[in-house]
Structure formats: structure tokens, C-alpha cells
Design brief:
This protein is of the alpha/beta class and about 200 residues long. It contains 6 helices and 9 strands.
Length: about 200
């Protein structure tokens, strides 16, 4: 399975995916890393591994249509079969979502459908979870559709919230399980075990 990674930051989930591939857990190949930021550390990881990189930012193009065309060209050239968002801080353009329907996945640092949607990213999520008084949080792998964090859920894992947890401490606990479940979810995709029906998704045994 050819994977295209989208990342805007340090790329820790990207590295976890590469480690799973190296270990033989995930039968896949990362063919390209796309970032909206030229200074994203994820780009450095890709270059070190001699993985094709592409910096695509709206600021580089006169219109969204031009950006979409460039993005689709890169994905086509690299024969991407699954688009994997790993800390990508931009909304995927509608035309790309439609072209790759049910072939775009994201990982969210909370238990969707709670604590998702526009503005719910990074520390904003963990601050909201703690403020709510919840006793558990976690991570969610889900398919990407036209709305933020609303696509069918593929996999989730929980972590306990204790009284001493701060947003930083909770973020670290959630990130650890992100690194555990994202490669496992991608493995299910690579093995054809993810079934999608309407707005529901599940993994077959």
C-alpha cells in the first residue's frame, strides 16, 4: 500500500508509522510527505529517509483551485492509495476529499465525537477535556470527510485522567497511544480489513 503523509509539525506520528514499517508490522510504503510549512520537522525526517517531499501552501498559489490541482498531481505521480494526516493543520480541500473518498485518515487527540470540530486541536483539546471534568480521554483514528472530525471512527483507545494531570501531561499520555494505534489502524487498511458502510466503519478479524 502506497501512503501519502500530510504533516505540519514535528512528525512524531509520521516517525511512529515509519518505525512500524521498519519493524515489519505495517506492509506499506510512504511515497511522499506533503506539508503546508516549509520549516516542518517532518520534512527533515522524510529527507533523511530519502522520501519524496512536497511543500504545498495556499500562499504559493493564486487560488484554491490551483493548490488543489498541484496537490492532486503530486498524489497521482506518487501513486498514493491512502492519505494519512499526521498532525496536518489545514483542512483537506473538498475536491481532494471527494477524489479520495474513504481513503483519507486522521488521528485526533480525544475520544470523538466529543471534543472535535473546528478549533479543537493540540492543547485546546486537552484543556477542554480537563475543564469538562472527564475521567478518561484518548485518541481516535477516523476517516476524513467534508467536516472536521466527523468521518467514521475506525479505532479508539482510552487513557485515564487523574487529578494531577495538566494539559501537558495529558497530551503526553495521549500522544503515546496515538503512536500505538495509528500504525495498527493503517495495518488494517493495508490488509483490507477496514469495512465502511455509510457513516460507519469497523475492522474485521
Amino acid at each position: 500500500m502506497n501512503i501519502a503523509i500530510f504533516a505540519s509539525g514535528r512528525g512524531s506520528n509520521f516517525q511512529a508509522i515509519l518505525s512500524a514499517i521498519d519493524a515489519g508490522l505495517l506492509s506499506a510504503r510512504v511515497t511522499v510527505l506533503i506539508s503546508n510549512r516549509s520549516d516542518a520537522a517532518a520534512l527533515d525526517i522524510a529527507r533523511t529517509r530519502k522520501i519524496q517531499t512536497s511543500h504545498l501552501s495556499q500562499k504559493m498559489f493564486p487560488s484554491e483551485e490551483a493548490l488543489v490541482e498541484a496537490m492532486l498531481n503530486v498524489l497521482s505521480q506518487q501513486r498514493a492509495e491512502l492519505l494519512v494526516l499526521a498532525g496536518y493543520m489545514k483542512k483537506i480541500p473538498l475536491q481532494v476529499v471527494r477524489r479520495y473518498r474513504n481513503r483519507i485518515v486522521n488521528i485526533h487527540p480525544a475520544l470523538l465525537p466529543s471534543f472535535g470540530g473546528a478549533g479543537m486541536y493540540g492543547h485546546f483539546v486537552h484543556e477542554a477535556v480537563i475543564a469538562s471534568g472527564m475521567k478518561v480521554s484518548g485518541a481516535t483514528v477516523h476517516l476524513v470527510d467534508e467536516e472536521y472530525d466527523r468521518g467514521p471512527i475506525v479505532m479508539q483507545k482510552t487513557v485515564e485522567i487523574i487529578q494531577e494531570d495538566t494539559p501537558d501531561l495529558l497530551a503526553a499520555k495521549v500522544l503515546k497511544i496515538e503512536h500505538e494505534i495509528y500504525p495498527l489502524a493503517l495495518k488494517a487498511f493495508a490488509e483490507g480489513k477496514v469495512k465502511i458502510e455509510g457513516r460507519k466503519a469497523w475492522i474485521t478479524l
